[in-house]
Structures are given as C-alpha cells and as structure tokens.
Amino acid sequence: MQIPPLKMINQPNKSFPPKLFLILLLLGGFIAFSYIGTYTYTSRYTTIHSSVPISQPRFQFKCFQELKNLGSWIRPPSTLWHEMNDTELFWRASFVPKIEGYPFKRTPKIAFMFLTRGPLPMAPLWEKFFKGYDNLYSIYIHSLPSYRPKFQRSSPFYGRQIPSQVAEWGMMSMCDAERRLLANALLDFSNEYFVLLSEACIPIRNFTTVYNYITGSLYSFMGSFDEPGPFGRGRYSFKMWPLIKRSQWRKGSQWFEINRQLAVDVIKDSKYYSTFEKFCRGDCYVDEHYFPTMLTMQSPHQLANRSLTWVDWSRGGPHPATFGPYDLRDGFFDRIVFGGKNTCAYNDGRTDLCYLFARKFAPGALDRLMENSFDFFGF
Ligand SMILES: *[C@@H]1O[C@H](CO)[C@@H](O)[C@H](O)[C@H]1NC(C)=O
Ligand SMILES: *[C@@H]1O[C@H](CO)[C@@H](O)[C@H](O)[C@H]1NC(C)=O
Ligand SMILES: *[C@@H]1O[C@H](CO)[C@@H](O)[C@H](O)[C@H]1NC(C)=O
Questions:
Q1: Does the CB atom of residue 209 touch ligand 2 within 6 A?
Q2: Domain 78-96+105-308: which CATH number of 1.10.3680, 3.90.550, 1.25.40, 3.30.1380
Q3: Shortest-distance Cα residue to atom 3 of ligand 2
Q4: Which of 5, 44, 90, 306 is spaced 20 to 30 Å from 252 by Cα?
C-alpha cells in the first residue's frame, strides 16, 4: 500500500521539484479534510428534514468537538437515524453512569414510544396534548420499515421515526420492536420514563397531570398478574423450568410505563429472552408475558402491577373494543377517567384517577375528540 506514493515521490518530474509536490499534496489533503470536517459538523447540528435513512459520511472528524465539554455527551442525538444493528444499539444503550446524581441540571423527560404499523391517525390530538411542554417529553415511532411518515416540520412527530423492522403480534419480533424503541430512547440521557403506546391510543388527561402522575409515582406501571386458567398459567411451559417456575409466570398488557433502570434491564436481558424465544411461541403470545414475568422476578417492588392505559375487554373475544365517534357520548370519558372513588392504588394509597391513556379509538373518532378535547380531557 505504501509503495505507489513513494514511487511517485521517488520519480519526480524535472520541472516539478519533489518538495513542492509534497507541499501541494499536503495542502490539497488538508483542504479536503477540513471540508469533510465542516460538512459532518454542520450536518450534526442542523435538523434533519426527514426520517428516511440518511447516509452519513463514513469519516467523521469531529472528535475534538465531542470531547470538548460534557454537553456533547448529554445532548440528545441530533437525528434518530443510525446504522447500528440491534446488537450494537442495545450495547450502546445499556451504558449506565456509576456515579449517583448528575453534574448538570437534568430535567427528567417522558419518552412517548409509538409502536405502529403505519400512520398515526391520532397525531393531531397528541400534538395538542404536547403543545407547550417541549423540554419535558420526547417522541419515538417504530413502524413498518417501508412506511414513510408525512409530518409537517412544525409537528413534534417530525423526524421521530427510528430504524424499524417488521413486528408481528404475539411474536418475539413484537418484543424486539419494543426493546428497539426503549434502546433508541435510552440514547437520550434526559429520558427517565418510557411509555409504550399504539396508534389507537389517546391521552385522556392534560400533560401536567400525566407528567406529575408518572414522575411522582414510586412504582412503574407494568401490568403484571398471575392468572389461573388457559390464557394465563395455561400458556406456561414446563420447559422453562427451573429458570421460571409456574408460580412466577405473569401476564400483563404490553402497554407499559417503566423507568430508566427497568428500561435498561429490559434491553440488556439475554437470559430470559432466549427462554421465552424458545418456549413461548404461537398461542403463548410472548408480548403479554415476557416483560411482566421477567420484571416481576427481578424487581417486584418497583412495579405497580397495573397499566396506565384503559382498554375495554368487556365485549369478549380476542380483541378489545374499538370506539368510533358515536360511542363518545356524554359521560363516556368520565367513566374511564374516574372509575369510582378510590378505585386504584397509587403510591401505597388510593386514587380516583386510574388511567392516563386509553385505547382503542378508530380514526373516525378524531374529529369528535379534537372538538371536545377540553371538555373531555382538559386540554
Ligand atoms: C450486528 O453486527 C455485529 C458486527 O458485525 C455482529 O456481530 C452482530 O451479530 C450483528 N447483530 C445482528 C442482530 O445482526
Ligand atoms: C390539567 O388538569 C388538571 C386536573 O384536571 C387541572 O387542575 C390543571 O389546571 C390542568 N393544567 C393545565 C395546565 O391546564
Ligand atoms: C406487585 O407484585 C409483586 C409480586 O408479584 C409485589 O411484590 C409488589 O409489591 C406488587 N406491587 C405493589 C405496588 O403492590
């Protein structure tokens, strides 16, 4: 590799002194390098206009910028797009400081993670909900990899899609998608709480109520219960023994809220992962069991064992009820929001306010929700 340039220098043109040639070469190289350096520098600090994969230059001469001060470590990444695969991403996302506290002012943020197939029909309602609280939340969207969102630049959803893969209900690929959302959200050091939502979810309280409820809670809202019968313990396989005993088997809705420590626990796990992947297939519906069982075994005292997302299973069948505009008559949300006096546990006490989010709502319900959002939800 070294021979060609040496040859070039050793065989100088008479009318072109070798030293001058070398100087010109160095000068040219310097100009080229500083150009690339400026390019990467600017591209890092300007907003990326879309969430389609953007090929970044391979050579990045920005080490000096990165190490100059703490800011570069705690600033969220300027673009959510990256070329890490899951192994690389989870490794990077599992970095945890070993010193307690932060040597800078840290305002904990809530990461709202949307697990969707394609469009987010309820986005206008969410935009209304988020308005005015920019430094207290961040948004992440996992959708089918082929889906290209069309959000306005002014929307908080703009450019918030993460590198995604196909995820199927009831399969491990669904848990992978949830872990991918967590891992991407963990890259922002300010994210302290992680909420998983679907495209059919809506917020049913205003932002301040949601923020205070979540940040003020001693427990993470992961649904987790021991259900006898075919749809609970019946899905347990004795092949999981002795790692998981039948009495340790848990079920819970996948729509969770967990704190940063539990989020790291979820993405770093390989022990339970391989067992669930091997033995919880098909009718087992791994996305209803893997996180609740693992977290209940590892950190039972950090869990509220209930979800913050209301859903109506009362009609029976494998899918919960979906609500359209005509379902949303007077009092519909009052019944959800206040399920009755002191019905729910909160910080070892009781509260009327059980849920902050609800599903499932059909796209056709949006107009009615938008028109009445203040009456219904107070925003
Ligand atoms: C990611 O890339 C690394 C390095 O090439 C490789 O060892 C690892 O198996 C890859 N992981 C996945 C999930 O493809
Ligand atoms: C949010 O809702 C709560 C309870 O309904 C209310 O007390 C509070 O004033 C509302 N906050 C804002 C900023 O509207
Ligand atoms: C949640 O359940 C676990 C055991 O399954 C229990 O140890 C824990 O105390 C429960 N959490 C609350 C807030 O009651």
A1: yes
A2: 3.90.550
A3: 209
A4: 90
